[in-house]
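Justification of computing resources. Each target in the renewal requires a structure prediction run like the one illustrated here; the chain below, 207 residues long, is used simply to show the kind of job we budget for.
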Amino acid sequence: MKILRGQYFSFDAIVASVIFLLALSILVNHWYALRSQMGEEGSYLQNEAHRISDLLLGTGDYNVGGAGVYWYKSAAGATRAGFGKNNSFAGHILLGQGGGPSMLDAQSYLAAGATSSNYDSSRALLATSSQYYINAYMQCTNAGEAGIPSAPPPLLSLSFGKEPNWQQDEIAKVVRPIYGLKEFSTGAFCHYFGNMSVYVWEKGLRS
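Resulting structure tokens:
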């Protein structure tokens, strides 16, 4: 009786296996490349957020064109951005002491789309091709003292820049502590402490 032996691996099966392994290899390589690209993009935005936050806590140009104009009012002609107080510690920002420059005024000039907006010029001043958005919240720590409102304790809240699409855009965030001294009409001074959140983002990079 003649015994017939089956062929375990035909030529077609071998070719199909090779094609499958090649396709799988290409898919895996593409996935790792895409993941690496997303990681690099996220790292770039995070670095930009740190860099921009450092600039904004530094001393700005408060004499644009030699005319005593503050940088956020005329960003196109300014030499540097920043709300910091000169020769002071990092995070000590200006709040309009004595009628001078104030971070509180920035939202009137640096809000994207506003009539008086300097937002695009401020991006050039910050040397960034990315978009940015700033939130800041500060609380008076000596509320209730003579001449300072006590009910409710004064809270400063502001935002400026271009707000991202929080669900779709690729966003990096840096939070920096800030401090400022503000004078009330009564002549009393309030010590404000809080945080400034710097968001740097690119449009529609999230899947």
